[in-house]
Amino acid sequence: MKKKALLSSILVIALCLCLIAGGTFALFTDSHELDVAVTAGKVDLTAEYDTASMLTWSSLYHTEKDARTDGLFDNTGTAKFVTDDNGEYTIVEIDRMTPGDVAKFKIDVENLSNVNVQYRVRMISLAGEHEVDLTEALTITAYIDGMNYPVTGTENASVWRFIDANQPIEDIWVTIAFRNTPMDLSDLSVGNPDNKYQEAQAKMAFFVEAVQGNAQTFNMVTEEEGQAALMDPATGYLANSIHNGEGATIPVTEMPVSGGAATFSNITLDSSKSTESTVLWAVGDSTVVLADHANVIAPTEPYVDPDGYVYNTYAYAAMLGEDETATLIVDETASITARGSEAVAIFAQGGTFNLVLNGRGLINIDPGAVGLGFSNSTVHIFVDSREAMNEYRAMMETINATVYWYIDGTAV
Q: Coil, helix or strand for 18?
């Protein structure tokens, strides 16, 4: 009996200990409340005409330094601001414009955004009452941040410009010129009684547009104005980071790329008839992306200097300093073409060059041309298959260059 009682006592104690041990997991608890506050950013630009800014002159006899401030042209035409039904100055009215006449006015823009933004000026032509749209004969430019950008056409826009949050935007000047060199000489020739632009009308609207700074933006490019739209006239370099050519084929000469990134989409840069030696010329640190259906065609004929020395021609060439790096990315739908015996599709000299080829058959070369040429450069080439590596390696020539190959990101 005593043994049974002792055993029973031990079991009870053990059970109590188990209960105590099991309860210790809930003895100590704690929690902290962490609040999250989210506030959306604001993209906010205001724009209005400066009604005291109108300048007029005739490019046949004068320049802008001779501009008038009374809104009159030499041939009695006028350019002025008029009020809309609400009594606000929102309309520019140009009357009796003749070839050679130029009107220039200012748009005041205020940046009230509390985030970084991109902005541009866009113009659209509104259907006039006359059967001929006078916009066809006008050259329209927007002067933004010290550069002139063409917005000529029935719908076009300047390039997108980047600006930090709350930073002021310089005044935008718009110039409208009636071309005195006609596209078709029969239209504006002296003594032509059937000049189709007589009494023609143009109505247009200007918009100052803004998006958040990290938005993907595309610039509008037309075949007629393509080179001017792609180039920064002040520096000669690419004017903006992204270009959507809307399928246009643009005849180009040398197009330098200096710093930053340039992405070409749905456009053909054709230098086959150019006397220059290079289409895309990367100077210093830069990244160029040939995206959706972008094509670059190198000059067909070699460049010959005044002394008779024959130079290669290039679709893309990176001329780099010792510590500089350039990157070229070619999408699977894009292509680079080297035509002629002295042509090179992709060339890099000096520094470090990164080449990403997203597919096979992206480099097209004529017999005798070179697909990949590298000189005194460290080169990293990224492909997606061994077959692609073998294809591109077969068209490569090097001089004192070190080349590393990567398949799906892995060194081989």
A: helix
Place of tokens 């246009």: 248
Alpha-carbon torsion (226, 227, 233, 239), positive or negative: positive
- Distance, in Å, from the CA atom of 42 to the CA atom of 79, rounded to the nearest integer, reads 36
Structure tokens at 131: 């059967």
> What is the CB-side half-sphere exposure of residue 390 using CA atoms within 13 A?
3
Strands 172-178 and 101-111, how do they pair?
A: antiparallel
Which residue is it, tokens 């002025």? 80
Q: Are 303 and 275 within 8 A, CB to CB? A: yes
Select from 392, 383, 327 the least CA-distant residue to 365. 392
Lookup: tokens for 106? 């200012």
Distance CA 336, CA 280 (A): 11
The rounded distance, in Å, linking the Cα atoms of 260 and 288 is 9
Reported in sequence order, the residue ranges of 199-285 that DSSP labels E, i.e. its strands, are: 203-212, 219-220, 242-244, 249-251, 255-258, 261-265, 268-270, 278-283
Angstrom distance (rounded) from CA 271 to CA 174? 31
Asked whether the beta carbons of 312 and 347 are under 8 A apart, the reply is yes
d(CA 289, CA 64): 39
Residue 193, SS3? coil
Please name the residues in contact with 207: beta carbons below 8 A apart, sequence gap of 6 or more: 121, 122, 123, 124
Question: Would you call 186 helix, strand, or coil by DSSP?
Answer: helix
The span from the CA of 393 to the CA of 410, in Å, is 17
User: Which letter does DSSP use for residue 25 in this model?
Assistant: G
pTM for this entry:
0.54
Q: State whether residue 161 is helix, strand or coil.
A: strand
Residue type, 293: H
Alpha helices in 219-374 (DSSP H): 226-230
Sequential pLDDT tens for the chain (412 residues): 444 444 444 444 444 444 444 444 455 556 666 777 787 878 888 888 888 999 999 887 788 888 999 999 988 899 888 887 777 667 788 888 888 889 999 989 888 899 888 888 887 777 555 567 777 778 888 887 766 666 766 666 777 777 888 888 888 898 888 876 444 434 444 455 446 777 777 777 788 888 888 776 656 555 555 555 566 545 555 655 555 566 777 776 667 776 667 778 778 887 776 666 788 888 788 888 898 888 998 887 777 777 888 888 899 999 898 899 999 999 999 999 988 788 899 999 999 999 999 999 999 998 889 999 999 999 999 999 999 999 999 999 999 999 999 999 899 9
